[in-house]
Design a protein that fits this description.
The complex is a heterodimer.
Chain A (H helix, E strand, L loop, with lengths): L1 E4 L17 H4 L9 E4 L4 E5 L5 E4 L2 E4 L28 E3 L5 E3 L7
Antiparallel strand pairs in A: 2-3, 4-5, 6-7
Chain B lengths: L1 E2 L3 E5 L5 E5 L5 E4 L1 H11 L10 H12 L3 E2 L5 H13 L4 E6 L23 H14 L7 E6 L8 H18 L2 E7 L7 H9 L2 E8 L3 H7 L9 H11 L5 E7 L1 H4 L3 H7 L8 E7 L18 H17 L22 E4 L4 E3 L13 E2 L8 H8 L15 H4 L27 H32 L1
Parallel strand pairs in B: 6-7, 6-12, 7-8, 8-9, 9-10, 10-11
Antiparallel strand pairs in B: 1-5, 2-3, 3-4, 12-13, 13-14
Helix pairs in contact in B: 1-2, 4-5, 11-14
Classes of the chains: A mainly beta, B alpha/beta.
Chain lengths: 109, 458
């Protein structure tokens, strides 16, 4: 079988918006184990990694459940407000350095 | 295993079969023997344990290309899941920003009603404040900006100020940043192109409206005067620093003969950092552009013209290419983490609605006063409840196409009784366009082979 265009390969050329797939535009890098690349409208992302629960971190698929979370709602001594690893649930943030609070996206009504 | 419902088959050279899979977006040529083996695999009467090495390889390729799928897989569910994951993923934030509604052009077909408002200090500061808050999200990985207008280069200082702010924020929080701009390119000199490139504007979209005699009648300066030569010159110079995508609008008049158009843009074709692609001119966006309705092609006519466009371009060695891929979300208007912010701070979902108060869903200066109807109809847009699209082979690529064509609007957009064509043009010409791609790729491969042979001889 001869591939004219391989599945998932970035296209040679670019056009704007959702078909604008090109490595430099799409934050796309060769992701080991990833099978399908797609375009979300603002960037291209790896759709599937080899197993469920994995996500593509630039050049390799990593297990994103494998991060170490706090088990209660207290913040550690050092608490960057944007770091996902220090609060017990994704989507919670440490706003005051002491307590984890649910995060609300300001652009959502 | 079974055959994918998203396979599109065509005849290739020497009895070969061509297969495009709309989900995996691969395009393959199968010789007679491989095609026969594919049909055998798809007929369920197979045992992979008995395959020869060559058959095993082909079998893996069929699966990789999505042409052959597991018996129990509901492919429509897979497309739906991909859509839901992408549309509602909180890992990206996207703004379309209009630094100004003012424009130095007065194009005859423009859908925007002219209100020369520029972004105030209060709105700029509020965008910064809102973005800083949004960056507290632990989910955020990507931040993308589209600079739109009006003519965004008339708000150049705002573009620079906000870009610097966004890039610093992204660097600080290790979020990936990218942006692009829709510009008429009249003010795009080398200095600005370099500065924008340094601000991570990854490409700029320019527009040409046909050969100079037609373009200069339609795409005119606000005070009158031609624009073709300066746009072409600026695109050429700016492409030294930044990729430019040149959209060539196509309508009934331009489609009569592509020769004058191609002759006039030949200087741009094949240049590093410049790509050229056709765009359908429509009159459906707002009342402001309804005056060009008689010039516009419908989608089926456009599909036919598009095939001729690429065929003619290839005959002239202009190096244009076409391909369609599957998408994961239909449009940024449907993504809750994307928004369009107008110069006065008002928020709309769709680019076509800028300046249309009735379709605004709020204002960033008061995020508590939201028009729920104008917001939720977009973010809850569901491509999978459309009867017309059920089981369509193109669903992974178009996801019901433009949501604006389905949604009820309060503005001029739907007050006309025009029946909007909802499908994408490739529904009508995909086989023709893929065959052009096939012929071109074969030609390229042959040329490469000949060059290699010549190099060996030398």
């Amino acid at each position: 079988m001869n591939w004219i265009i391989k599945p998932g390969s970035p296209i040679d050329d670019f056009v704007p918006y959702c078909q604008a797939d090109k490595p430099s535009q799409c934050n796309y890098k060769d992701c080991a184990g990833a099978e399908t690349y797609t375009c979300t409208g603002v960037h291209c992302e790896v759709l599937t990694c080899v197993a469920g629960g994995y996500t593509c971190n630039n050049a390799s698929c990593v297990d994103y459940w494998g991060q170490c979370f706090q088990t209660d709602a207290t913040c550690p001594t050092y608490c960057p407000t944007y770091c996902p690893t220090y609060c017990p649930t994704k989507g919670w943030i440490c706003t005051d350095g002491k307590v984890c609070n649910p995060y609300t996206n300001p652009i959502l009504p | 295993m079974k055959e994918s419902m998203y396979n599109i088959w065509m005849e290739g050279d020497n009895g070969a079969k061509l297969c495009y899979n709309a989900f995996a977006s691969g395009f393959a040529e199968l010789d007679k023997e491989t095609y026969k083996f594919f049909m055998k695999c798809a007929s369920k009467k197979i045992d992979p344990n008995n395959f020869t090495d060559k058959e095993k390889e082909s079998y893996e390729q069929f699966k990789k290309g999505g042409m052959l799928v597991e018996e129990t897989l509901n492919e429509q569910d897979r497309v739906k899941l991909k859509f839901l994951q992408s549309t509602y993923s909180p890992n990206s934030l996207g703004y379309t920003l209009l630094p100004t509604m003012a424009c130095n052009f007065k194009c005859t077909y423009c859908f925007e009603e002219q209100k020369p408002v520029s972004m105030s200090r209060e709105v700029i500061d509020k965008i910064k404040e809102m973005t800083t808050e949004a960056f507290k999200s632990s989910y955020l990985e990507y931040f993308a900006i589209t600079w739109f207008g009006g003519e965004p280069l008339l708000g150049y200082d705002t573009v620079i100020e906000l870009s610097d702010f966004f890039i610093n924020l992204c660097n600080e929080r290790k979020v990936k940043y990218s942006s692009h701009m829709i510009s008429n390119c009249w003010l795009l000199d080398k200095e600005k192109a370099k500065a924008l490139s340094e601000r991570k504007v990854t490409h700029i979209q320019a527009t040409i409206d046909g050969p100079p005699d037609i373009h200069n009648q339609r795409r005119v300066l606000r005070g009158g005067g031609p624009t073709f030569d300066r746009i072409v010159q600026n695109v050429l110079e700016a492409s030294e620093f930044i990729p430019i995508a040149v959209r060539v609008n196509v309508d009934k008049e331009i489609a009569k003969d592509f020769t004058p158009l191609f002759d006039s843009i030949k200087i741009l074709a094949g240049k590093k950092n410049i790509s050229i692609y056709p765009g359908l001119l429509t009159s459906e966006a707002t009342k402001a552009c309804a005056s060009v309705e008689n010039m516009c092609l419908n989608v089926q006519e456009y599909a036919e013209v598009l095939t001729k466009f690429y065929q003619s371009a290839i005959e002239k060695n202009l190096g244009f290419s076409w391909y369609v891929r599957s998408m994961s979300s239909s449009c940024c208007a449907t993504r809750p983490t994307s928004t369009v912010i107008c110069p006065d701070g008002s928020l709309v979902r769709c680019w076509n609605q800028v300046g249309q108060e009735k379709e605004s869903y709020g204002n960033i200066m008061d995020m508590k006063a939201i028009n729920g109807e104008n917001y939720f109809k977009w973010v809850l847009f569901n491509p999978f409840d459309k009867e017309e699209c059920d089981g369509c082979v193109f669903m992974p690529c178009c996801l019901a196409n433009c949501p604006a064509k389905w949604l009820p609007m309060t503005t001029d957009f739907t007050q006309t009784d025009r029946k909007l064509e909802k499908c994408a043009s490739y529904k009508y010409n995909i086989k023709d366009l893929l065959k052009i791609t096939y012929a071109e790729k074969k030609k390229e491969a042959q040329k490469k082979q000949e060059e290699e042979k010549a190099a060996q001889k030398a």
